[in-house]
Amino acid sequence: MTSGISRRQFLFGSSAIVAAGAVQSIPGTPFSPSVNLMKSALGQSELPMPAAPIRMSSNENPWGPSRAALQAINAAIHEANLYTFFLQDEMAGLISELEGIGSEHISVGAGSGEILKMGGLLASMQEGSIVVPDPTFEDLPRYAGNNGCEVIRVPVNGQMAIDLEAMASAIRSDTKLVYICNPNNPIPTIVEKNALRDFVLEVSRDRMVFVDEAYHEFVDNPDYSSMMDLVREGHRNIIIARTASKIHGLAGLRVGFGFSHPDLAAEINRRMTGTLNIVGMRAALASYRDKEHAAFVLRTNKEALEITQGYFREAGIRHIDSNANFTFVETGHDIAEVQARFLEYNIRVGRPFPPFRNWMRLSMAKPDEMRYFVQTYKKLYG
Ligand SMILES: Cc1ncc(COP(=O)(O)O)c(C=O)c1O
Prior knowledge:
Blueprint: H1 7-12, H2 15-20, H3 35-42, E1 54-56, H4 67-76, H5 85-99, E2 106-109, H6 112-123, E3 129-134, H7 139-146, E4 150-155, H8 164-170, E5 175-181, H9 193-203, E6 208-212, H10 228-232, E7 238-243, E8 256-259, H11 262-271, H12 278-288, H13 291-315, E9 319-320, E10 326-330, H14 335-344, E11 347-349, E12 359-363, H15 367-381
Pyridoxal-5'-phosphate binds at residues 59, 111-113, 137, 181, 185, 212, 214, 243, 245, 251, 256.
């Protein structure tokens, strides 16, 4: 374990716990002591500061890859001499099966970031603009902007959600692409499914609509739906992006997916510049076949959110209820300063996202680590 409150610290940091001998592994995961056992063993005592900063800053998976993925990674190291062309069909075939969509719709990228950049590139090939929410994930807008596109930013609404009406009004005749990040990042709100479906169908008649579903697997909200069915039904001009970085914990190995009409997928595939590596490919193949790990990550993410947002609720601290693996909370203090204060306690929180200078994006770590976060928050600002 490279960061966070290590298992060793929890096991051996308190003699009471060691004496109680109460901490065990959760069956089926190599990673964590039982949170409930640990809670009772720790009682009300103070949680110790971890040896290295806990990452609550980049919406990463705190558990790392699944056991199956780790085994695949170990084996794949011995294949490091190979290009990965021979695995492309297997990868597209697996995703095709899991998503119920023909593999001719699928692009496999070096992270979904590469698919996002392809959206930005296609939009900027002729003079024009793109319309994006503000704030949002910047990969696509930044790339399109760097390639000469005008980026029209549409502020989120009063509920801090993407404002579809305002986005529609901002579209000009020269708008080549509209970007919707659902759930959004850094604010983990969603767009209501029926309104989004109508919007995507209407807007994609004349221009591309890119729906970024990086956090799709985390959403537990009846108002949410993926827009994948529109691509399945054969609609043109729609790109959906998904990633192995989040729920599968493979951010460092760069695997992501695009889904679009076969003509658009072919265009994206022709222009991509990244190449996947064998370790990432093998890890993703193993991970997407392993349902148990994803279920474990979801469960612990929910628990982490409950600990964190539960505290915010109790304390009356304004926050946006998460639809992903991070939350957004109004600290009332400048975030640059908040970041520095938390770092003194070995917690790395999100950077500032202007204009929300007093709001902090907080990525979920392990439940135990979120307890340590709450303890620290109370100490600093409670
Ligand atoms: C909304 C969103 N889309 C895409 C990505 C990029 O993910 P990756 O390139 O690792 O697939 C991220 C990463 O944080 C994200 O938050």
